[in-house]
Design goal:
This protein has eleven helices and 37 strands. By secondary structure, the chain is α+β, with helices and mostly antiparallel strands. Helix 4 runs parallel beside helix 5 and helix 9 runs parallel beside helix 10.
């Protein structure tokens, strides 16, 4: 079996990049040609003699604030040439953009680093350690082996082993820690720290976790922040995933006074960041906005991403677009937006329909400038909020989704560029003629049986993302048949000067940037570029560069 991948999920500026070619010894002595691409430009070409397995190619360090690259290895054999591709990115800001994954198995049987190594191949650079703790009110256990609040066996040495592996593979490790959950014994000891319904009953989640008062004047806040600090200092986490349950939004404290949680989350995040920061250590903090609440309140707090768990009634592709754009506006495009949109089809539908739903979900999220928490463990996919109950991808589908993750990394400079403004509703359709899609059924918001067009532009660059929804519905959490392929998609784009390049790329055909022929001509409204896209399978990006 062959494989080609970088040895880390992400590289720091000035750090050597290593690309590994696994070949089971079958290609020893063969010659290979390595090409490195930056967007649509080839920047490096090397000849490699395959001598070891894996064959390791070390590239000189990249000195960059943030740049993303594609890599193609062409191996010449007696039977012809074999092509393999991958991607990598380099950053001065660790974890930008955040590509989130998860681990949830920490018992003795889970020893080893295969899971972390697999996540690195998807370029996951931040990992949520889900339900690793002893109790939600006492995160770090007093013993190495223990049983968590859901009755699962955990070995703390396994947790630490996987944290170390994350660091080896260029990932940040975040410890899960709910902001207001406590066990029954803890609540019984501190009922005055609890939150209550309007009928003065204690508030609970799944009748196991008692909801505590996170207001600044309640001792619970200091207690839970101390637990976070111990998780970082004693276990070695790089930060905390601050979980919430979306309920309650308003409750009563022990004295019967109302507590509006959105008003207190801001200072809770600020206090947590202040407590965890230490000189010379990169601290990661992520807060869970369950059901897209309360994003507007917490978006500008000192956390490293806008993380949103997507639930009903956000059920359509149009809702994903809405969530992402609102979150980006709320944080002034200063943070990665991460959607935790769990795919039930992997639990309820066929593998083929499930992986098609995943392809469309990844495309819908990335085209709008956000990332997903979807994959983790060893080729596992999330289907619900309890990460332990994940599903495992079939081998062929794992390869397919790796192509999508490669594509998202390779073109991250465009996908996550805060300068590119979304003009999907203002520059195409009706009286808007800046962009025209001719003789084609399209929509700007992911309607079924259309090509979903997401258009983003700056002064010098225009991108059009085409997501094929022909033959499928627009419910993101439904299984999907393969979209019906589309052909001969015609665009006319107003420009103020002739482009320096026009190119297209798709994760469905290897991800390489392919030049597109165009016609540059005058119209009554100014210069126009006329372009025809031959084929659309699932997701394709068209880029017009004007510099």
């Amino acid at each position: 079996m062959m494989d080609f991948y970088p040895n880390k999920a992400q590289y720091r500026s000035g750090e050597p990049v290593q690309l590994l070619f696994e070949h089971d010894g079958c290609y020893t002595g063969c010659e290979a040609e390595l090409r490195i691409y930056h967007l649509n430009q080839e920047i490096t070409q090397l000849t490699v003699i395959v001598e070891t397995d894996p064959c390791v190619v070390t590239l000189s360090p990249f000195d960059t604030q943030y740049s993303a690259y594609g890599a193609q290895l062409a191996v010449t054999t007696t039977d012809g040439v074999v092509f393999l591709t991958t991607a990598f990115d380099v950053t001065k800001t660790p974890g930008y953009p955040i590509r989130y994954g998860f681990l949830s198995d920490f018992d003795e049987k889970s020893r080893g680093v295969d899971d972390v190594e697999t996540m690195a191949k998807y370029h996951i650079n931040a990992v949520q350690f889900y339900d690793w703790s002893w109790r939600h009110d006492k995160l770090v256990a007093d013993t190495t082996e223990y049983t968590d609040m859901m009755g699962r066996s955990v070995n703390l040495s396994v947790v630490k082993e996987k944290i170390s592996a994350c660091h080896q593979y260029g990932m940040a490790a975040l410890g899960y820690g709910a902001v207001y959950a406590a066990s029954l014994p803890f609540y019984q000891k501190h009922p005055e720290w609890g939150l209550y319904s309007t009928t003065r009953d204690p508030l609970t989640f799944i009748d196991i976790f008692y909801i505590m008062n996170i207001a600044a004047d309640c001792p619970w806040r200091e207690h839970i922040i101390t637990q976070y600090t111990q998780a970082v200092c004693k276990v070695g986490f790089d930060g905390i995933h601050m979980d919430t349950y979306g309920f309650p939004k308003t409750a009563l404290n022990f004295e019967g006074k109302p507590v509006r949680l959105a008003e207190h989350f801001v200072s809770l995040i600020e206090d947590t960041r202040h407590a965890l920061e230490s000189p010379g250590k990169d601290i990661f903090l992520i807060f869970n906005n369950v059901g897209n609440w309360p994003v507007h309140s917490v978006a500008r707090t000192p956390q490293d991403a806008i993380y949103i768990e997507v639930w009903e009634p956000y059920s359509r592709y149009a809702h994903l677009r809405q969530i992402i754009l609102e979150a980006k506006r709320s944080c002034q495009n200063q943070k990665t937006v991460v959607l935790a949109a769990y795919l039930a089809p992997f639990r309820e539908d066929t593998p083929e329909r499930s992986v098609n739903a995943a392809r469309l979900l990844l495309a819908a999220t990335a085209a709008n400038g956000a990332t997903n928490l979807l994959l983790g463990e060893k080729n596992a996919v999330l289907t619900q909020g309890y990460y332990v109950d994940h599903s495992i991808l079939e081998d062929a589908h794992a390869v397919l989704l790796r192509h999508y993750y490669d594509f998202i990394v390779r073109y991250g400079e465009l996908l996550f560029d805060p300068i590119l403004e979304d003009v999907s509703f203002t520059h195409i359709g009706g009286d808007n003629v800046e962009y025209q899609c001719i003789d084609c059924s399209w929509s700007p918001d992911g309607q079924p049986d259309t090509i979903w067009l997401t258009i983003r532009e700056s002064i010098d660059c225009k991108t059009i993302h085409m997501i094929n929804l022909h033959g499928v519905d627009d419910a993101w959490n439904n299984g999907k048949a393969n979209p019906t392929p589309c052909h001969d998609i015609h665009f006319r784009i107003l420009v103020d000067r002739e482009p320096t390049s026009v190119w297209t790329a798709s994760p469905d055909d290897g991800g390489k940037a392919i030049p597109v022929s165009y016609v540059f001509e005058k119209s009554k409204r100014g210069f126009v570029v006329s372009i025809t896209i031959d084929t659309l399978d699932c997701w394709r990006m068209l880029t017009v560069t004007l510099v």
